[in-house]
């Protein structure tokens, strides 16, 4: 197709209707665009704020085709989709960004790592698991990762000794060295149709070790400016290596020895950049809309340092969400609260987030941790 876009009547499609799609849709609606989301759950978070929802799975070819053909531009809030159904549509000229070929490369974490390695981008030592005996090939401790489908801590297994082999991932997987981590860093890189690139500040991620889910994010990361520039240069090289269009969350390890290693890339809005809604001139959610529709990229300037904390479903509960402590946390200074509108909670499910602003990052972190202790998402059904 490749016809000029009519921004007065632009129809944007989003594959995925969770919290990322919801906030993306809100930003697109602010710009006057018509939004249709595809998600298997009726009245999903993004469906609640969009113009239309196609109820269908991410591997339902007919529904994917329907979305693509009724929208001027289509993008993603998740990468686990049927790219084989999308490739012919992209080849016919339909605007799908990032391209399904880029999504396919990123979907397979082993192929993603091989590709980055071939481009000279620093990654941890890795090895394919072709037979069960390969699980010992890098020695112990070692990290085993599923090639496809891993998300929010799932699909990752730390094998500390031979005793842990009984817990090994049974599907297609690969091994990665156990990196001696000093900090886990992330950065969002935006790249539009014209090849314009913009980077957000480097952030520092803290993880809930029980389930390996990102717990909180500090923006900016507590690292030297020269190191931050190195992270930016590596992240841009990653995105330009596969000519990505959209926004990309690049996760990295800073080792105890001071080396930067790329962990993995997400071809969509990323949990590490929720802080941009309040803290940056242009949020990551507006930025992806700009990038995939060929508009100029917005400023990524950090207006004020901030700390974002994920609000996870409490252990021991599921069912309809029950919120505890909301008045108390909103009484704290410079706190923004986001609840995603999910109808069902379960342990460790991402239900919302808070962002705390302060020119003193340490004070923001202390206030964020206080809010986290106060606020709880429980459910109507004890487990």
Specify the CATH homologous superfamily of the largest domain.
ATP-grasp fold, B domain
Q: pLDDT under 50 segments (min length 5)?
A: none
Morphology call: globular
Give the helix tally: 10
Q: Assembly state here? A: single chain
According to DSSP, the number of beta strands is 20
**What is the third-level CATH name, the topology of the largest domain?**
D-amino Acid Aminotransferase, Chain A, domain 1
Q: What radius of gyration results from the CA coordinates? A: 20 Å
Between the first and last Cα atoms, what is the distance in angstroms? Answer: 52 Å
Mean pLDDT: 93
Helix fraction? 25-40%
- H/E element string? EHEEHEHEHHEEEEEEEEHEEHHEEHEEHE
Q: What summary fits the major beta sheet?
A: 9 strands, antiparallel
CATH class of the largest domain: Alpha Beta
As a percent range, the share of strand residues is: 25-35%
CATH architect. name of the largest domain: 2-Layer Sandwich
Number of domains: 3
């Amino acid at each position: 197709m490749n016809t000029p876009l009519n921004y007065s009547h632009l129809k944007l499609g989003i594959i995925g209707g969770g919290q990322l799609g919801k906030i993306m849709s809100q930003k697109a609606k602010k710009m006057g665009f018509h939004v249709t989301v595809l998600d298997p759950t009726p009245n999903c978070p993004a469906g609640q704020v969009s113009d239309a929802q196609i109820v269908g799975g991410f591997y339902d070819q007919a529904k994917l085709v329907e979305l693509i053909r009724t929208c001027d531009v289509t993008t993603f809030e998740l990468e686990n989709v049927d790219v084989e159904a999308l490739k012919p549509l992209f080849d016919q000229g339909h605007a799908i960004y990032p391209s399904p070929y880029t999504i396919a490369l990123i979907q397979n974490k082993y192929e993603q790592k091989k590709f980055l390695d071939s481009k000279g981008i620093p990654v941890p030592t890795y090895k394919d698991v072709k037979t069960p005996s390969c699980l010992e090939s890098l020695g112990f401790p070692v990290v085993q990762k599923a090639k496809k489908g891993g998300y929010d801590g799932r699909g990752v297994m730390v094998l500390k000794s031979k005793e842990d082999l009984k817990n090994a991932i049974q599907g297609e997987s690969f091994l990665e060295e156990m990196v001696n981590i000093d900090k886990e860093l992330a950065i969002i890189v935006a790249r539009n149709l014209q090849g314009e690139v913009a980077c957000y500040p480097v952030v520092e991620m803290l993880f809930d070790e029980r389930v390996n889910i990102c717990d909180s994010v500090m923006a900016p990361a507590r690292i030297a400016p020269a190191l931050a520039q190195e992270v930016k240069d590596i992240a841009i090289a990653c995105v330009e290596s596969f000519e990505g269009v959209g926004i990309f969350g690049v996760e990295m390890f800073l080792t105890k020895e001071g080396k930067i290693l790329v962990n993995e890339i997400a071809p969509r809005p990323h949990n590490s950049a929720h802080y941009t809604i309040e803290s940056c001139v242009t949020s990551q959610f507006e930025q992806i809309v700009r990038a995939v529709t060929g508009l100029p990229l917005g400023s990524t300037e950090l207006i004020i340092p901030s700390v974002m904390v994920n609000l996870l479903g409490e252990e021991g509960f599921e069912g309809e969400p029950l919120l505890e402590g909301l008045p108390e946390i909103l009484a704290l200074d410079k706190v923004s609260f986001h609840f995603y509108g999910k109808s069902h909670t379960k342990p460790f499910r991402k239900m919302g987030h808070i962002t705390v602003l302060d020119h003193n990052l340490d004070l923001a972190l202390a206030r964020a941790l206080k809010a986290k202790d106060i606020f709880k998402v429980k459910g109507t059904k004890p487990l």
